[in-house]
């Protein structure tokens, strides 16, 4: 009988249930359920619909039952930084506000009234992103201090879904680190920092590492979905899971986890909380087995996703990519400019940037996409130089994992702008990484290097030379 493991991988634009099993020494995947996601505008606030997402999680579980493929374990990963505050009856206090909402505007200044930006970085190693949990909690403290008083617990989004499935509250380490409230030396909550900022430290559960068993489904969930299952914590931060699936054991590898965001960086055994690192805006997110993800957030395919929605919803990403490849427009935008975080209209935001900087203004979807792809690749090139200068190492290959690894034109540009070889795939890296931790826990692999070798042999991986030619 095949043994199945289930990854529920929820990204900012869609979620999926993926069953994995081993056959002939290789990992096999089967996508059994998919659903849309996105932030809804609720009276002017960008929110996630946690109830609907949980219904979708259960729908996918019912699909396992229907197929007769009952997993031995399952785990959920999502984006980072967002959370729920629960009252004494475990009801969500306020809305489940999404990270692109602008409630955090000015909250950096508020936080720095208590602790300077330099000290905060030295203490947490996390890059400044205005949406980090630390700034979101300041927004709550400013506008709804009563929520912090009433709260009995805080859970990151995947922790919350694991709680709804099992009745057990755990806070998983990789996602927790994205909030900027964890000390990268002790790998534990910085309770002193919470006290300084006036956040109630009592509501934070102890940190649990990936691989920890959360518990079994509650009776009610068992009845609803038709089976029982063990919930095992994966790296619940999607980027943490994706980086686990980088198909190499070469420590000198640069990766890009390419999806809604492009997360570009390396793995390190220790966090680098130096001022040089802070100035370059690199982060040290906690990873499996205490490997830090030393990386930079680059705006990523969110820009293409938004343009597609605004122009022609039905056009496929592959088609957009092919059309863009035929363009020669030379304009470049700074992908990390704030104007691209949550613009009312992405097309206009790109055009405005070009106009403002005296460059050719793109008009068609192909031209706009070409500007975005070239700008992303240019940003990758700059980031490689920063990594090489900070670490003193040189790297010869960029490993692109995640859905964006399908964008052939972007892979070519990545090779050209970075002057490095590019390895592209696996595209389902996040789900694979999620499953890898479950399999490590179950003894399928003895170590992460063994798992990574298997991942490299199991999935389709494309290779490009430094000139962008596939070989
Ligand atoms: C990618 C990601 C990034 C994080 C951003 C917001 O999906 O998790 O790593 O910076 O979303 O949480």
What does this protein structure show overall?
InterPro entries: ATPase_NBD (IPR043129), FGGY_C (IPR018485), FGGY_N (IPR018484), Rhamnulokinase (IPR013449). This protein has three domains: 4-232, 2-Layer Sandwich (Nucleotidyltransferase, domain 5); 238-299 and 376-464, Nucleotidyltransferase, domain 5 (2-Layer Sandwich); 302-373, no CATH class. 39% of the residues lie in helices and 21% in strands. It has helices spanning 50-67, 107-114, 117-124, 133-143, 145-150, 157-166, 173-177, 191-197, 219-225, 238-244, 275-279, 302-311, 317-325, 346-356, 365-391, 408-418, 429-441, 448-458, and strands at 4-10, 14-23, 26-36, 40-42, 45-47, 71-77, 83-86, 153-156, 171-172, 182-183, 188-189, 207-208, 213-216, 230-232, 254-258, 262-268, 283-285, 292-298, 397-401, 421-424, 462-464. The strands form six sheets. The chain has a seven-stranded mixed β-sheet, with helices on both faces. The protein has a six-stranded mixed β-sheet with strand order 3-2-1-6-14-13, sandwiched between helices. The two termini are 38 Å apart. 49% of the residues are buried. Residues 11-12, 79-81, 99, 237-239, 259-261, 263, 297 line the site of beta-L-fructofuranose.
């Amino acid at each position: 009988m095949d043994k199945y493991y289930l990854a529920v991988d929820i990204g900012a634009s869609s979620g999926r249930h993926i069953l994995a099993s081993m056959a002939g020494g290789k990992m096999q995947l089967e996508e059994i359920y998919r659903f849309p996601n996105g932030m809804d505008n609720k009276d002017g606030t960008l929110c996630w619909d946690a109830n609907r997402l949980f219904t979708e999680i259960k729908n996918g579980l019912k699909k396992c039952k229907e197929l007769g493929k009952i997993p031995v374990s399952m785990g959920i990963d999502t984006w980072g930084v967002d959370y729920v505050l629960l009252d004494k009856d475990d009801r969500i206090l306020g809305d489940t506000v999404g990270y692109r909402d602008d409630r955090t505007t000015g909250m950096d200044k508020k936080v720095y009234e208590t602790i300077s930006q330099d000290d905060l970085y030295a203490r947490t190693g996390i890059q400044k992103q205005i949406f980090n949990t630390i700034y979101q909690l300041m927004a709550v403290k400013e506008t709804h201090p009563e929520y912090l008083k009433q709260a009995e617990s805080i859970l990151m989004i995947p922790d919350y879904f694991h709680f709804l499935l099992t009745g057990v509250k755990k806070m998983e380490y990789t996602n927790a680190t994205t909030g900027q409230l964890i000390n990268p030396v002790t790998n534990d909550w910085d309770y002193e920092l919470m006290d300084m900022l006036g956040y109630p430290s009592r509501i934070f559960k102890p940190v649990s590492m990936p691989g920890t068993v959360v518990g079994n489904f509650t009776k009610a969930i068992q009845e609803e979905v038709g089976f029982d299952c063990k919930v095992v914590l994966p790296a619940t931060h999607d980027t943490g899971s994706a980086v686990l699936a980088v198909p190499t054991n070469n420590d000198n590898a640069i990766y890009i986890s390419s999806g809604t965001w492009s997360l570009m960086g390396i793995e390190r055994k220790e966090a680098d909380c130096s001022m040089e690192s802070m100035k370059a805006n690199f982060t040290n997110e906690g990873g499996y087995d205490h490997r830090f993800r030393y990386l930079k957030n680059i705006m990523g395919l969110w820009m293409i996703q938004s343009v597609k929605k605004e122009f022609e919803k039905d056009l496929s990403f592959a088609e957009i990519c092919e059309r863009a490849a035929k363009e020669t427009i030379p304009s470049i935008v700074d992908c990390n400019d704030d104007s691209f975080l949550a613009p009312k209209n992405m097309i206009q935001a790109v055009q405005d940037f070009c106009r403002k900087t005296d460059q050719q203004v793109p008009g068609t979807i192909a031209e706009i996409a070409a500007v975005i792809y070239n700008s992303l690749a240019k940003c990758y090139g700059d980031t490689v130089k920063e990594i090489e200068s900070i670490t003193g190492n040189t790297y010869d290959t960029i490993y692109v994992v995640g859905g964006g690894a399908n964008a052939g034109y972007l892979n070519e540009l990545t090779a050209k702008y970075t002057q490095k070889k590019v390895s592209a795939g696996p595209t389902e890296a996040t789900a694979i990484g999620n499953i890898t931790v479950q399999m490590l826990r179950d003894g399928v692999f003895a170590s992460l290097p063994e798992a990574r070798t298997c991942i490299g042999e199991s999935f389709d991986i494309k290779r490009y030379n430094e000139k962008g030619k596939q070989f």
